[in-house]
Design a protein that fits this description.
elongated; DUF3455; DUF3455 domain-containing protein; signal
């Protein structure tokens, strides 16, 4: 289902302000390696609900042949503090706001996070930005408060080679700019 909303940049930034108090609660628990640079300012926090996609692959040069679930891509919908769909998250990793702006990131740091059954928490740097909207000036992204999303517990094998597994997950994504 596709949602079309009249959600302005001003409204997005207002929603981010509402999340500021929540972000202060997280700051104490956030591992040092995942903190954005002191020169960067948090502009937005969005909730993501979707899947982490894994593919069963052969481990290169393994003798005898062995197989593992390899991360392929995320696929998630992004929601503001009021639960409205405002964008999407997909391979790249990329985040795209409904205003057409986009940021592509690359992992700078990771932490296992407090839940051993969840995907790791991350700090990413912006590799590229496009558009003139909400994500146009994003310099860093944090993935925190992850729930689930790890590769399947059951192993993959020659019989399942090439098969995809779509594992549900949730996370909070914080976006930072350099003023």
């Amino acid at each position: 289902m596709t949602h079309t909303l009249n959600f302005t940049t001003r409204q997005a930034l207002a929603a981010a302000g509402l999340l500021f108090a929540t972000s202060l609660l997280h700051a104490a628990a956030l591992p040092e390696a995942l903190k954005a640079a002191a020169s960067q300012q948090q502009t937005l926090e969005l909730q993501a609900t979707g899947v982490q996609i894994y593919e069963c692959k052969a481990i290169k040069d393994a003798v005898p042949a062995r197989f593992e679930w390899a991360f392929k891509a995320p696929e998630a919908e992004l929601f503001d503090a009021k639960g409205r769909s405002v964008g999407k998250h997909y391979a790249g990793p990329s985040w795209e706001f409904q205003d057409g702006s986009k940021v592509v990131g690359e992992v700078r740091a990771r932490d296992a996070g407090p839940d051993p059954k969840a995907i790791p928490w991350l700090l990413l740097s912006a590799k590229s930005n496009s558009g003139s909207g909400v994500f146009a000036k994003t310099a860093a992204i944090q993935r925190i408060d992850t729930v689930a999303g790890q590769a399947p517990a059951e192993g993959c094998s020659a019989e399942t080679l090439g098969r995809e597994a779509r594992i549900s997950y949730r996370a909070a994504y914080r976006f930072f700019e350099t003023p």
